[in-house]
């Protein structure tokens, strides 16, 4: 009985962590879009994220530098650090925040399930398949929207959408690797921040385009603080905990609630209106998230005497 209560408590904490990440990632979409519309490049946003988080977590990494094998750290950094961040940040320079909410956060359940199927043998049940179908419909609507709606940036918006989907794939791989290797959250985040900075910052300073010198100081502080501390450290720790307690697929499905939060917040904060197609896509993705979370939830075994 005590073991069952402890397991139930751990599951609830895992879903609470995933719900908190949903709020953090909704803010991530808004703040990133602000950065994408500023003088900063997507490469600048990546440098701020890795630089700030590495400065804070480097001391933690030095306490246990061999806690995680370097091969694993490099893979985590390439997918969950550099690959995910650069694709998404560059996508925000081309496409609106609502698209990111649907394609990144709505796409993560698909990519996570695909990678989990290949690496973990995950087999979705009927409820999860229905959830994925609804989310897939929402993603398809966004693809049609980008290719058919005439706007001043329509010719480049679809490129941002592709980058968003690439970021979702990178994060799906990252989540499954965390589950496979059962890493301590703090070790994983400290190693991810440090190795991502070591791999990325030299390339950034030597070869990548930057507008850091002309960007407003307030914008640099906002982007560095939110991405380097709130997202990379707080969000990373919470996602690692959620992925290990409730599994990457369930965690990813809860995160699919982010599109609705993002789209609503983008109207007053970014001045980005949403049309009927986007609303329908949001409804599909949100319903998919709710159905998927319910279908994935563990069911207690039937007691003797139960029907």
UniProtKB/TrEMBL annotation:
InterPro entries tied to this protein: AA-Vitamin_Transporters, EamA_dom, EmrE-like
Annotated Gene Ontology cellular components are:
membrane
Query: What membrane topology is given?
Result: Multi-pass membrane protein
Q: Which organism is the protein's source?
A: Candidatus Methylophosphatis roskildensis
> Where is it mostly found?
membrane
Query: Domain EamA spans what residues?
Result: 13-143, 159-291
Pfam families listed in its UniProt record: EamA
**What is the name of this protein?**
DMT family transporter
- Give the transmembrane ranges: 12-31, 43-62, 74-94, 100-120, 127-147, 162-181, 188-208, 220-239, 251-270, 276-295
Organism's domain of life? Answer: Bacteria
Keywords noted in UniProt? Membrane, Transmembrane, Transmembrane helix
Which compartments does it reside in? Answer: Membrane
| Family in the record | Belongs to the EamA transporter family.
């Amino acid at each position: 009985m005590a073991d069952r209560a402890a397991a139930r408590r751990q599951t609830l904490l895992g879903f609470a962590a995933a719900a908190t990440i949903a709020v953090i990632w909704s803010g991530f979409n808004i703040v990133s879009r602000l950065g994408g519309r500023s003088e900063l490049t997507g490469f600048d946003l990546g440098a701020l994220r890795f630089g700030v988080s590495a400065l804070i977590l480097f001391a933690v990494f030095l306490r246990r530098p061999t806690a995680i094998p370097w091969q694993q750290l490099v893979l985590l950094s390439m997918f969950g650090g550099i690959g995910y961040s650069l694709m998404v940040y560059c996508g925000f320079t081309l496409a609106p925040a609502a698209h990111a909410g649907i394609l990144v956060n709505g796409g993560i359940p698909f990519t996570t399930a695909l990678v989990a199927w290949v690496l973990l043998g995950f087999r979705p049940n009927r409820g999860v398949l229905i959830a994925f179908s609804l989310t897939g419909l929402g993603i398809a609507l966004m693809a049609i929207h980008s290719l058919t709606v005439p706007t001043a940036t329509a010719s480049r918006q679809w490129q941002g959408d592709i980058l968003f989907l690439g970021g979702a794939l990178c994060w799906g791989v990252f989540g499954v690797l965390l589950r496979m290797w059962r890493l301590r959250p703090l070790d994983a985040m400290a190693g991810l921040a440090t190795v991502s900075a070591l791999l990325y910052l030299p390339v950034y300073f030597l070869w990548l385009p930057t507008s850091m010198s002309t960007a407003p100081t307030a914008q640099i502080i906002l982007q560095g603080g939110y991405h380097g501390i709130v997202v990379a450290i707080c969000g990373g720790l919470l996602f690692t905990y959620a992925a290990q307690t409730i599994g990457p697929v369930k965690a990813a499905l809860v995160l699919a609630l982010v599109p609705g939060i993002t789209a609503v917040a983008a109207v007053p904060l970014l001045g980005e209106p949403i049309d009927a197609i986007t609303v329908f896509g949001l409804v599909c993705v949100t319903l998919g998230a709710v159905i998927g979370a319910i279908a994935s939830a563990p069911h207690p075994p039937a007691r003797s005497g139960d029907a």
